[in-house]
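Cross-check.
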Amino acid sequence: MENRFELIAPCHFGLEAVLKKELTDLGCEIVQVEDGKVTFLGDETTVCRANVFLRTAERVLIKAGSFRAETFEELFQGTRNIPWEELIPADGKFWVAKATSIKSRLFSPSDIQSIMKKAMVERLKTKYGISWFPETGSSYPLRVFIYKDVVTVGLDTTGVSLHKRGYRTLTSKAPITETLAAALIMLTPWRKDRILVDPFCGSGTFPIEAAMMAANMAPGMNRSFLAEEWNSLIPKKCWYEAGDEAGDLVDERAETDIQGYDIDGDVIRSARANAQAAGVDHMIHFQQRPVSGLSHPKKYGFIITNPPYGERIEEKKNLPELYRQLGERFAALDSWSAYVITAYEDAEKYMGRKADKNRKIYNGMMKTYFYQFLGPKPPRRKQGE
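Predicted model, tokenized:
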């Protein structure tokens, strides 16, 4: 018999709409969209497919329950009322891996974690008729969100965060996560038949994520997930089927014009190695080149990039010149669009034009801006072209 789960997918603040669209495209029924997470319905197969296919979610949680709690006693009782025996076997290893609290009375993560663990033990003792838990079996980590005194508890099926696709072994400084890069690309009208250049490509995340989209490669197809180790709840068969589906969908023959440049040769070598690990190195042209050397003969291309924004003081003084060069090279391209994510407040000033659109996105705790400089749309192609 199949289980019906309420599932939660956390994501970057400001990118909920992109994740919602991804879930809808996967055929999931959306329950709620809130700051930093989307709740949806599904069965065991949905859990596996969401882990394998979602590009913009951080993880996939099975919602265990939610309740109001303003005191630790209410937190204890609320946690104890959740039917844990339906989720966690007698030998399961369980703990609250992370607790976050916003605008709530209860805010000490360590207290929340220990009280909830005690409540779970109390419940499972009575249900399993044992007084001691060996915890020698599979892992069942929980994630807890408390917002305005409402506690939401989720059982993590993912393990290592979904942004870890398995291809990025080498990173440059201040890298952008794979999930954020994918979401930003999805916010643009870029499609695989259009040119994409990242003049500050670092470890290659934007070009690699774009190439994976172009080849229809599921981001999770080359990694494993925590819930694969569970003997209950999600049958192994569901994981195999999601993996097979992902394999069948890959388009080996996808052709693209995706380029990544960086002024640092070592960085370009690591970007190439990462692209190779992702299986898309044949689709991307990486080159050591400064931003001042940015050019392309064709029209209607896209710049999608994460330029430096001077975390270090000595870098700060180079920023005006760097953004000025980016602006100049962009202006010289014929009918292109540029999408720039940066925390640098003067980006527009030095690029020499105001962005057509701008959205605030939190990269971790850092407030960044996604500046969108829109070029003209290419003419529609006639049938058969």
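The first strand starts at residue 5 and ends at 10. The longest helix spans residues 109-128. Passed to J.P. for a second look.
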